[in-house]
């Protein structure tokens, strides 16, 4: 979906568009039986994973971001950190998705999924922050109703 062409920054995480350079790491994550079970996913070959990334990027019913953990800002605000430093020091830790999946084609109805794939980043508030970002993105950008 073209709506997620930009990066969204928060305090602990950034949501970045899912691009081909993310596929190898994502593919490694999805070899985990635990993550396969938690996401109801089947293992894919690397080539299939690249095809999936491409199709998700073009699909109007999917909004997919990679979650990256931002460098510790200490006393600096993100606005004062050069973009290159942010890019060079962030860590890919998971993904966040919105799937518009209502059978009645109601585009205000969707499913949100957040996965923190890197175990050392779980239970650190990053998943909660990513969820808040993707909910806001869905509410404002897609006009999804957040609760029914």
UniProtKB/TrEMBL annotation:
Pfam families: Acetyltransf_3 (PF13302). The keyword Protein transport does not apply. The keyword Acyltransferase applies. Keywords: Acyltransferase, Transferase. Residues 13-142 form the N-acetyltransferase domain. It comes from the Eukaryota. GO terms for molecular function: N-acetyltransferase activity. Belongs to the acetyltransferase family. GNAT subfamily. This is N-acetyltransferase domain-containing protein. The gene is PARPA_10627.1 scaffold 41546.
């Amino acid at each position: 979906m073209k709506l997620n062409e930009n990066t969204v920054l928060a305090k602990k995480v950034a949501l970045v568009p899912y691009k081909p350079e993310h596929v190898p790491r994502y593919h490694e994550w999805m070899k985990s039986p635990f993550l396969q079970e938690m996401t109801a996913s089947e293992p894919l070959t690397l080539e299939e994973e690249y095809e999936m990334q491409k199709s998700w990027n073009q699909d109007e019913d999917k909004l997919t971001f990679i979650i990256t953990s931002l460098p510790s800002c200490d006393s600096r605000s993100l606005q004062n950190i050069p973009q290159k430093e942010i890019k060079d020091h962030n860590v890919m830790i998971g993904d966040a998705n919105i799937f518009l999946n209502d059978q009645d084609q109601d585009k205000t109805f969707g499913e949100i999924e957040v996965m923190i794939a890197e175990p050392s980043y779980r239970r650190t508030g990053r998943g909660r922050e990513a969820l808040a970002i993707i909910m806001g993105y869905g509410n404002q950008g897609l006009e999804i109703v957040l609760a029914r």
